[in-house]
Amino acid sequence: MIKRQFKTRIAKHRIQRYFLNNYRVKIIFPGSWIILLLVLSGIAIGVIASTGVFTSSRFNNQETTLYDEKLVDGIVNQSSKAVVEIIVKRPNTPTDSGTGFILDKQGHIATNEHVINGAVTIQVALADGTLLFAEPLGVSASDDLALLAVNPQQISHIEPLKLANSDLVKTGQMALAIGNPLGMRNFLSIGVVAGIGDSPPILRDTRIAPALQRPIPNMIWTDATLLPGNSGGPLLNSAGEVIGINSAVHITYQGDLGIGFAIPSNILNELLPNLKSSTVISRPWLGISGITLTQEAIEQMNLEISAGVYIWDIYPDSPADINSLIADSKDGTINGDIIIGLDNIEVTSVSEMVDYLNSLQPYDEVNLKIIRDAKLRQVEIVLGSWPPKN
Length: 390
Fold this sequence. Notes:
Blueprint: E1 5-6, H1 31-51, E2 58-59, E3 62-63, H2 69-79, E4 83-89, E5 96-102, E6 108-111, H3 113-116, E7 121-125, E8 131-133, E9 135-140, E10 145-149, E11 174-179, E12 187-197, E13 219-222, E14 234-236, E15 242-251, E16 257-264, H4 265-276, E17 283-285, E18 288-292, H5 295-300, E19 309-314, H6 319-322, E20 338-342, E21 345-346, H7 350-358, E22 365-372, E23 375-382, E24 384-386
Parallel strand pairs: 1-15
Antiparallel strand pairs: 2-3, 4-5, 4-7, 5-6, 6-10, 7-8, 9-10, 11-12, 11-14, 12-13, 13-16, 14-15, 15-16, 17-24, 18-19, 19-20, 20-21, 20-22, 22-23
């Protein structure tokens, strides 16, 4: 259930599209020339067709294909039985659904936290249509991950999916998404890993998607098509291993499906012991929406620093708000605080900062080094807990 479909905030994220302008030139030919051109065009088309250009793409006499069909067929046959549909019933709402996948022979099934959030009953539909009741175990709203349990005897005939080391994922690698969008079981889409990065600020705006106000680091960006119902399903590599758990898709103002985002498999692997013990996981939280500064931005701001994270927004009543950190004023002036250090580490990106915070616990105290009005300041902050309590 790709439930969070977000619109771009133009004030912050300008999506530049480049169009090739087609200039039409009106040329008037005498009648005899038109006949001659038609004859020559027919001959040319016949020659091109005979070479096979229209039927296949060739380079150096070798056919090129988008992907290896045998490889994809093998991955689907190997993996699809372990991909399940998550059917959720919430109070006073129609039945909803998403995707999950079998992790082991003990009956554990991984999915997104937002897929099962608020559920009264949860059922799992196997690839052959068998319906099983599932029990929710641990959840981490910060990471949009949840673990379910079914009777292991009922899935003993299914080979679980293996978790890959997502730290080894590279841009350009094959990415396959299997899920249950729009009522279609085991729907496959193929693409590549478009990049590795944070869940972008457009997915963390408090006015649009508060569940992602705390960024998820090192998310896998992919152009494999993700549709409503894909949430919680696996993003696979060419070996059929899980590199990510599909979580969200960016939709433009025009309604076009954009890039998809998957939570790295290593985050799931790290949290599994706590998820299996039915723990509700809380992450330490600073309460900002930050932007990693580029060298170009640093030069334009005339700062004598090598890297940092610019505070774009501050969540109300968060530790950052309580300790009077300053966010961008949104009036065109660059006047927000810049975080350059956290305890003994240099902050070079949002991902690095969140990675470090994830190694701590809620209510730990940290020393924050910031640049404000071109001067270095240090602030002692007690971290909060995400999700914040209302």
